[in-house]
TrEMBL record:
This is Cysteine dioxygenase. InterPro entries: CDO_1, RmlC-like_jellyroll, RmlC_Cupin_sf. It comes from the Bacteria. The lineage of its organism: Bacteria, Bacillati, Actinomycetota, Actinomycetes, Streptosporangiales. GO terms for molecular function: ferrous iron binding; oxidoreductase activity, acting on single donors with incorporation of molecular oxygen, incorporation of two atoms of oxygen. Fe cation binds at H88, H90, H138.
Amino acid sequence: MDMATIVRPGLDELVRGVGALTARRLDRRETAFAVADLLRAQFPSLDLLTPEEREGSPDRYVSQVLHAQDDFSIVAVVWRPGQGTVIHDHVSWCAFGVLSGIEHETLYRDHGDHLTEIGRADNRPGEVSGFAPPGDIHAVLNTSDEVGVSVHVYGADVRRLGSSVRRVYDLPVRQR
């Protein structure tokens, strides 16, 4: 099936809503929280992806760009059980909502020569959050026994950039 012919329930409304928010030119943090509020109000269903897209890949988590324009992108991420990211940060603000699975997030602070863990969260289906750089260093892992799906809205054109990741951190992690 051609990507242009896939019906994605709720995507057009989400694009219009995010577009209206980014047009307000709020600061990064305010935009992330406003988009998170919009996601809560217009929470997408798993039908946003086709059954095939919701299967993910046995090799690694999969990011599917659903919409991209200059000032924001909407991306679905599919994580099989046990799949996760490396420690990284982002090029822009982000708001995300978990549709299925459990996204276990570990947050870090950069001290130049090492990282310290500053928090953990288990993001469950129906939960929405937002963040903005700086202070967005984290790693995410699907700790559930089911395929995880989440929708992420980034304040950048990730199709043009190739990724939402600004930097990967390969530093020692020390206890506080």
